[in-house]
Amino acid sequence: MASGSTAEPNFDLFVTNADAENHARTCYDTPHMPSNIQGTYIVSGPAWWTGPSPGTTGDYQMQGIFDGLAKANTFVIGNKKVCHASKWMNTSIARKAEEIGHIPGMLFEESVPPRPSCPMKNKFCESNVMVDNNWVNVIEIGGRVVMLSDTPHMLVMDLDTLDVTGNLVWSDDKPSGTGPNPDWASPLHAVASGSAHPIPFHNSNTYVDVVTEVMEGPGLCLFPPVDCHFLAVYTFESDVSGMQSRKHLRSLPFSSAPYLHSFGVTDNYIVLPLNQKIGVPNLFKPTLLGLIKKHWFGIYVLDKQGQTVEVFADMDEFVHVHVINSYEDDTGVVIDLGAYPDTPFAKTGAMDIKMFKNKGQRDSNPGRATLQRIKLHLTGPLKGQSEVTKFAGAAAAHADFYRMNPEYYGRSYCYFYATEWWHDESNYASMAIIKHNTCDDTQTYWTKTNFYPGEAFFLSNGGDLEDDGVVVFVAIDGERGASSFITLDAKTMTEIDGASVQLPFHIPFTAHGEFITDHGAITV
Ligand SMILES: [Fe+2]
Predict the structure, then answer these.
(1) I need a surface site. Which of 257, 309, 391, 484 has the fewest CB within 10 A?
(2) Residues of the domain holding 243
(3) 401 C-alpha vs ligand 1 centroid, how far in Å?
(4) Cα distance between residue 336 and residue 322, in whole Å
(5) Domain for residue 524, yes or no?
């Protein structure tokens, strides 16, 4: 087991290989877990960096935290127990890595040593790979658990066995060198990225999603500002259990290709904060860090049909990764998000394994988000103007992984939960779970010495109030050198005795979790 510095014991476990074996379902007594919370919390993340398959040490070491082979974890909650299981994700990229001896395709960072060159007869072999290391997020479509990343491809997972059963197939798929793409994608364009955060209209089964279409053959795009790249906006239905077509709404043209990780959806609008661009990769050994750059397009507000209503570009430029929530008010749209000074998709202590392990480098990382509310006036005397208000919070702290009561997505709301780093404003490994009250702009938080939490997920207990429920998350317990599943009372942000679990092993970095009720539907 890895050890960290004395001051921050075992913080390195976030980037230390998980157990090579899968873990069969093991149950733990949680007598004080609220009895009406029944279902499965699923959360995944990169968990093997040193070889082409779990349990191996190969020639090509991963440098990017996000490049690891993925392991999925489930926590089945109910009957006064929490039962954990985990399994390595059987993705096409994992199978390919096992076959060729290194993780192929678009990586965040090049391996050490660099991957071998492709043979002359197939010199773009690293680019013609379906990238489906989809550990980033989870949604439910037609009763199926679907794993997502910033790719156009979605994977179906069997929740009982944790087996990846294949690509989610759409009736408008057409084949390409990097896997199936929508048949409405623009000719001469590569579907380069998707969003890991499709979201539905409020109380609706209609989800909005996007893909970026990059002009293939950069020579065709040498004369900016030619609008040769597109951000395509489409919808799908989450209650369709069979095959369906994606409904293409609009392909917004741009002279640079936008990169969009998350966005907002209200009753009548789609809100796209466009502040990063993605460049054309090195086709021989494609890597993502350095390819995504800050680029201010403005905030696009589209109607439900995909037509542009207004573009707001009058505010101070920022970069966002995650939207907290968005909703309509009397004169327009409000969008809350975390605003970075520059793209966080850079080689920093948050992305690079070596820098993550270096306390000086991780502590001095300037990539910290400011929580802010942006009011976009669509009508009234301020039509076309924006107003930005920063939320309260420690200036040098950093909060991300925003979650809230899903009943309030797209609605005026009071509470969101987030994971915080630099809680003490000086040490990256000083971590907390914050509860931000947007109605009075105050924060409460949970923190525990040498505990390093992942994303916090709100689970309603059926009460009427927005914060009637619990907050659950996985945290590395630095003193034990293993992970815990922790349950807080969402009202007080205090741990509920008898509702948390101490696992006997660690779970490395994890991303966005989701809760799936026992009857199969996500509690949205
Ligand atoms: Fe995300």
Answers:
(1) 309
(2) 11-517
(3) 7
(4) 9
(5) no
